[in-house]
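ARCHIVE CARD
Drawer: 12
Card no.: 0347
Subject: one protein chain, sequence and derived structure
Cross-reference: see card 0346
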Amino acid sequence: MSLVTPLSIAEAAPTRARGRPRKTPDERDDGNRRRELLAAAAKLFRQKGFAATSTRDIAAAAGMRSGSPFYHFENKQALLAAVMQEGMRSALRRQNAALAGLSDGASAEARLQALVRNHFEVLLGPDSDFIPVMLYEWRALGERQVAEIKALKDVYEAAWVPVLSGLHAEGRLSGEPALARLMIFGALNWTVQWYQPPKAAGRNAKRAADRAGLDELTASALSLFLKAPK
């Protein structure tokens, strides 16, 4: 699944069962506590997989009591959907900021560079557990949840369409833009399987890939995707 509803679409709030106790003041803090819960869940879902991660594991990692996640989310599946939605919304905010930082007259190549660099940051940078979870755990979602994630994904990818079409018109991009987009996302997303930041790889890393930062990855990706200008 490559890399929303638009940002105005919010995740469905869990239905509170009758007779469930009211939240304590700490439990009503749907800001920091909720973010901590989502971050802990994303990390565990990425490390262990959705099926192998229990809500007790997530609560412990977030410093909560074992039943506390259910004050925020109806069940583990709803928590997984929220992790993916949070990841996509964050990716969209970053992408919009990256494009807004370009001049109005920026070339299509400069725009693709910004899009690719941002996508690597989303996939591989700090706090990057959310999107890999979306890429590999989406089959655990219900049909409605998949549709919501797909809507977010479509908005994210829509920004790439005019850029790739412009490059194709310039003769810089081989192949039909819609197909090229799918191929590009497939290549970029696969980096979560093999990339290690230079610090993690160590000073004595022998592979060039283990010494590369995100800027180097971006430059290499563009050299693969684009023809040299005529």
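Annotation on reverse: The two ends are 34 Å apart (CA to CA). Residues 4-20 have pLDDT under 50 and may be disordered.
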